[in-house]
């Protein structure tokens, strides 16, 4: 049984997903910069603005985690699951996440950030 309430769990999960989104966006930005698009600047601007938005949100998440003395650490992974340790109000809990679930959540957040106004 977990001691972590839903709002705090969502905050901890954001600390997992947002860095992944930044990595994906930075990788895609490099691909766009090297691509043979005739007009690539709008794509580059979109990606750069999206990265800034995700970084801003990640900073807010990290600040809230620090204020509440919460941490998340990846402690292991295999081809099916990734294991994280959540430090929450003096307790340590381990949670396993199914890798396709992580990918789907990242895709959902990726779409959210690309479609949200700056």
Explain how this protein is built.
The chain is α+β, with helices and mostly antiparallel strands and 118 residues long. It is 62% helix and 19% strand. It has three helices and three strands, in the order ααβββα. It has a three-stranded antiparallel β-sheet. The mean pLDDT is 94.
Q: What oligomeric assembly is this protein in? A: single chain
**Residue share in helix:** 55-70%
Structural class: alpha+beta
Portion in strands: 15-25%
What characteristics describe this protein?
elongated, 3 strands, alpha+beta, 62% helix, 3 helices, 118 residues
Topology at a glance:
Layout (H helix, E strand, L loop, with lengths): L5 H29 L6 H27 L3 E7 L3 E8 L2 E8 H17 L3
Antiparallel strand pairs: 1-2, 2-3
Helix pairs in contact: 1-2, 1-3
State the gist of this model.
Helices cover 62% and strands 19% of the residues.
């Amino acid at each position: 049984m977990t001691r972590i309430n839903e709002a705090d769990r969502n905050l901890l999960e954001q600390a997992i997903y947002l860095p992944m989104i930044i990595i994906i966006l930075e990788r895609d930005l490099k691909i766009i910069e090297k691509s043979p698009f005739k007009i690539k600047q709008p794509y580059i601007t979109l990606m750069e603005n999206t990265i800034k938005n995700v970084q801003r949100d990640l900073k807010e998440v990290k600040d809230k985690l620090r204020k509440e003395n919460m941490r998340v650490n990846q402690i292991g992974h295999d081809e099916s699951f990734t294991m994280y340790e959540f430090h929450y109000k003096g307790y340590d809990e381990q949670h396993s996440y199914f890798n396709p679930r992580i990918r789907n959540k990242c895709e959902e957040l990726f779409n959210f950030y690309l479609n949200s106004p700056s």
